[in-house]
Amino acid sequence: MKLQLEKYKEQKKEWPQQGYHIMAQYDDEKIVVYQSYRPEIGNFAVQNQFFGGAFSFERMTWIKPNFLWMMYRNGWGTKEGQEVVLAIHLKRQAFENYLKNAVYSSFKPTLYSSYEVWQKNVQNSNVRLQWDPDHDPYGVKQERRAIQIGLRKEFVKSYAKDDILEIEDISEFVVEQYKLVTSQNLEDLMTPKEKPLTFEDDELNGYLMLK
Length: 211
Prior knowledge:
Elements: E1 5-7, H1 8-14, E2 19-20, E3 22-24, E4 30-37, H2 39-48, E5 61-63, H3 67-74, E6 84-91, H4 92-100, E7 103-104, H5 115-124, E8 127-135, E9 141-151, H6 154-160, E10 164-169, H7 171-182, E11 190-192, E12 195-197, H8 202-207
Parallel strand pairs: 2-9, 7-8
Antiparallel strand pairs: 1-11, 3-12, 4-6, 5-9, 6-10, 8-9
């Protein structure tokens, strides 16, 4: 695996406990996001290093840069149709471009002048932005918020191939770590090394409510 790993308990000491934070593994060139699929889609993506085959370009696809948020949503890869867990090494510039084009999936009166303006923006945008409660390895809701980004139309087409640097199948790693979670052995639990991400663009940071 290309992912950098660190013990969960050690990382947790450094993580912010509340607020809006893009928790991710990243550097100047790339950022890792996660998705889970049924084998037909996931295996194709790993073998070909792009999304195609049974992958739907007509639906919105959601990406999550936060590993534990993904594990909460896919039940550590145990949910039907989400058995193949992928770590997608994505061009950081592409990720930032998604966010610059994103519209919140729910109305934010502090960010939009009116409900009607927000609705119009939603209709015209092909990128969705959503903040949800983050979760710990057991699925317990945290005060810190985790981001997920929905892509459709031209953005999902770009994401599926052009924006990807590498696709890793991390399903076996997820299974191994889930055994530690189910045995309540968080001392040995390893998770991808993550830290908060902010951007040089202060306007974008403000729009995303990042501190």
